[in-house]
Specification:
By secondary structure, the protein is an alpha+beta fold. The chain contains nine helices and eight strands. The strands form two sheets. The protein has a five-stranded antiparallel sheet. The chain has a three-stranded mixed sheet with strand order 1-3-2.
Length: about 240
């Protein structure tokens, strides 16, 4: 259908197909495969940007889902207006506005059946939000954008502080030579150290990191995955000793 409409409008069109079947969490795995295909196609075409049609109602759903998961500033930034080479210019538009344009222009479209499948958390959230007019999607989208700005500012600040205060300690360890910062900065500096220690690995967040911070602020030690974080005048991160069998 899309190919036929694009041909009629004289718009270049390509169908991208993943090389492997989608496994695991269907929506998450499909999203990862979709973006991988799109970026590969973008690079092959020599293009700078990908544009997606995420809108304000998508943003409202995402923010509320992240609130239910105790997300911080970064999580509440939700769907970014710009994320690398991906631009989302329609986050200030309601779904019904976009649907009205599609109908007025008689653009062919289909309804994704997964949007009615309540096995997915987003679909359940969407059903609960149906008819809810006191949570304004446009206002939520603006708040998410403000969180994105705050996240960018915090990331910039932590990068500067890490250059000044995080030092390599031997071949594998790191030392933080100043830690009298607000808790969120402490949290991010330790996460930065962990990211440096295990490049490419997932950095612990939430309660795991907060419990470790509580220990080291008291001058104690805490294990975080394969690493031992020690408090005191300096905070140090070193490989954890082998566990006894």
């Amino acid at each position: 259908m899309v190919a036929g409409w694009c041909a009629y409008q004289n718009i270049p069109h390509a169908i991208l197909t993943p090389e492997q079947p989608i496994n695991g969490s269907v929506q998450a795995a499909a999203r990862a495969a979709r973006y991988a295909l799109l970026h590969r196609w973008r690079q092959a075409q020599g293009l700078d940007w990908l544009l997606t049609a995420h809108h304000a109602d998508d943003q409202r759903e995402t923010v509320l889902m992240r609130l239910n998961r105790s997300s911080g500033v970064g999580g509440l930034a939700a769907i970014r207006a710009r994320n690398g080479a991906v631009l989302r210019p329609l986050l200030g538009w309601r779904r019904e506005e976009l649907a009205g344009i599609v109908a007025a222009q008689r653009i062919p479209h289909v309804e994704d059946p997964s949007n009615r499948n309540e096995r997915f958390d987003r679909v359940v959230m969407r059903r609960h939000l149906a008819g809810v007019d006191w949570i304004d999607p446009i206002a939520v989208s603006r708040s998410a954008a403000a969180c994105a700005d705050a996240e960018e500012a915090l990331a910039w600040m932590v990068e500067q502080l890490a250059r000044e205060h995080v030092c390599a300690d031997g071949e594998e360890g790191f030392t933080l030579n100043r830690w009298d910062f607000p808790m969120e900065i402490q949290r991010r500096l330790v996460a930065h150290m962990l990211a440096m220690a295990e490049a490419g690995a997932a950095v612990p967040r939430g309660d795991t990191l907060d419990q470790a911070l509580a220990q080291v602020r008291a001058g104690k030690k805490a294990s975080i995955g394969n690493w031992l974080l020690s408090g005191g005048a300096l905070w140090s991160l070193r490989p954890a000793p082998p566990r006894r069998q």
